[in-house]
Amino acid sequence: MEALAFTAIFLAALAAALGVQYWLGFRQLRFVRAHRESVPEAFRDTVSDEAHRKAADYTVAKTRFNLVSHAIGAVLLLIWTLGGGLDLVDRIWRGAVATDLPRGVAVVLSVIFIMGLLDLPLSIYATFRLEQRFGFNRTTPRLFAVDLVKSAVLGLVIGAPLVYAILWIMQEAGSLWWLYAWAVWIGFALVQTWAYPRLIAPLFNRFTPLADESLRERVDRLARATGFAVKDVFVMDGSRRSAHGNAYMTSFGASKRIVFFDTLLSALQADEVEAVLAHELGHYKLRHVMKKLGLVAVISGLGWALLGWLSGEAWFYAGLGVSRPSPCMALLLFMMVGPVFALFLRPFMSGLSRRYEFEADDFARKFSDARALTRGLVKLYRDNANTLTPDPLYSAFYHTHPPPALRIRHLAQAA
Predict the structure, then answer these.
(1) Measured on CA atoms in the order 353, 359, 363, 364, is the torsion positive or negative?
(2) Measured between alpha carbons, how far is 359 from 279 in angstroms, rounded to an integer?
(3) 339-350 burial string, b = 16+ CB within 10 Å, else e?
(4) Which helix (H) or strand (E) holds 172?
């Protein structure tokens, strides 16, 4: 393939991706605005007109922000690639470091650092303007800065050895280097799954054992009924940063823990918390987590294999504005350009996730009160300002959870 031909393919894919994102975004804006004044019938007894309008306005604001982010991201991608940004960073480090491997690590980390700096204004706006406007932000400037520094240090401590290992494999492991790199990547993901709740998350949040004895008894009883061995139940101080409520579970081997956001516990009644937890347990008992991990492993394996081929083709570099092929350039180009083409896989992944959500709801109603789950979900929709009327096509493309009205209807029919 000629470099110019690949440039044309890249530009066409980028234009198509941006076009799809804007088409769906404008559909979402029109649909949500059109239904702003009318609460869906299924929610009229539980969601006020004021809360419904707030959710619509919040959704419109987020959608506009996302459209701006997409445009900025596309411009930055063109600057990094065809605009010569990657080439410039590479030339600077070639003049400073003579050895290939250390230079490659420096180039990758420098680009990631600069990308983070360029994303910082959007992050600040989203936190202190958008979330603040709708009453969700509780992050102080000091906490934001501390989190930023912690994230940067963690990224360096964790990312530098990983980048070094990948680049070393790319240079030294022969034609099948991508297979070994994929194995390292999967190993890193598994270690991170184990380490995140134990070592990383406590650096950002405080986790305290669940003190509510009656709720703990409910949790233990539900765990026994579903055959789920719970080791720890914690409450996380999510309210330090946001008013949004959530809950999650981690599981690695025999070690399993449940984490409730304090905002969720303050918003829901005990039976509703139990029902929401039953839904989360359903994901584990139905092996959704393992299925998703397996799918991600397969897709990432195909991605590494594709990179293994592309890294040996001169047109891949030249077509994306890089004058000197190297392992670090191949890795960065694939990391930047890959999401443009992967965007079109998103409806498939979203559809699979929505199917799992329905299955977890069905599991939850077998071990808890379906009416309590419905009440809990409606409260979360209301308190998190989730729109009750998303555009169907936008939701099918992006949303990992079913639209609220469809989900509540499914629970009612099942009950």
Answers:
(1) positive
(2) 9
(3) ebeebeeeeeeb
(4) helix 141-172
Name 252's bridge partners: 255
d(CA 265, CA 271): 11
Measure the CA angle with vertex 209, ends 232 and 360; round to 5°. 50
Compute the distance between CA of residue 235 and CA of residue 239 in angstroms, rounded to an integer: 11
Q: Which residues are catalytic?
A: 280, 361
User: Amino acid identity of 284?
Assistant: Y
Signed CA dihedral, 184, 189, 190, 196: sign only: positive
pTM of the model: 0.92
Residue (of 66, 115, 168) closest to 335 by Cα position: 115
Q: Are 400 and 353 spatial neighbours (Cβ–Cβ below 8 Å)? A: yes
Q: Which two tokens stand for residue 391?
A: 């555009």
Q: Are 398 and 411 in contact (CB under 8 A)?
A: no
Sign of CA dihedral 66, 294, 156, 90: negative
| Distance from C-alpha of 15 to C-alpha of 8, rounded to nearest angstrom | 10
The C-alpha atoms of residue 61 and residue 233 are separated, in whole angstroms, by: 35
Q: How far apart are CA 175 and CA 327, in angstroms?
A: 13
Query: What pLDDT is recorded for position 254?
Result: 57
- Do residues 52 and 388 touch, judged by C-beta distance below 8 A? yes
Cα atoms found within 13 Å of the Cα of residue 348, Cβ hemisphere only: 8
Residue 408 one-letter amino acid = I
**How is the beta sheet containing 255-261 ordered, strand by strand?**
207-209, 232-236, 255-261, 247-252
Q: Where are the domains of the chain?
A: 10-173+326-343
Where the chain has pLDDT below 70, the residues are 251-255, 414-415
pLDDT at 85: 97
DSSP summary character for residue 134:
T
